[in-house]
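Handoff note, outgoing to incoming analyst
You'll be picking up this chain. Sequence as last confirmed:
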Amino acid sequence: MSLNQRCLVSKRFVIIKDVLERLYDKYNHRSQIKPDPLQFIYKYSNKADMEIAGFLGACLAYGRVQQIEKSIITLLGHMGDYPSEFVLSFNNHKRSKLSGFKHRFTTGDDISDLLWLLKKVLNQYGSIESYFVRGYKERDENIIPALTHFCDSLRRMYSSEHFDRVSRGLKYLLVSPTGGSACKRLNLFLRWMVRNDEVDAGLWKSIDKAKLVVPIDVHMGRLSRILGFHSRKTISLSTAVEVTEGFADIEPEDPVKYDFALSRIGIVENCSGHYGKYCTDCELLSFCCR
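Most recent structure output, in case you need it:
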């Protein structure tokens, strides 16, 4: 790369960082969280309850925003004031209480299978964090090896007591990077747990936020493409890594810093990928070729 090319790239990064910082200042506030499923973490003050509420909220973070919110309210309502205690005392009676639950194609049985696993995790390790960090190594380039170990080990734990079988629904809730998935929902949960600012809870202290991977879906993929961080047509683990590397060039110690603020463009500004009434006021308008 020539000196002029390096200067152009550097100038572009400065411009992008300025736009991202303005978005961060505008949206990264506790008052802006609703209707994001992150809101349910802050309904509790106990770390154990916040962790469980966050994990379940992230697992159900697919589909329409309003339906996600409704489903999480329903699920946590079944679990009472202390979700961690519900998990620790989970039994067949509590499984029956969840039998009628459904969020799109996630059923009450799927959630019950997940809670059965979480009960074993909490009883043996004390928290989801303590279980997760078993696969975490500082030398790893990013969080993917630890997330792979987390998902695969939980699925093995389940299959070992269920005739070597794992239901399709539980596989979806514990989707592993092994198959090339971007693992948007679990990376979202990790952002909530590891980062610590006015929005993200920062409950986990044992993981470096620089290792996090952007929780990428179709919407974030489109915005990241607009910013020039990838040119792929499909969303995959490779896309998530490439996008994260693009953000890391701008904010190496905190590559997912702008994730929440950028997601507001879709939720608050109603970005659909087509020109609309909000576009003229959008911070990304100068990057967007519509």
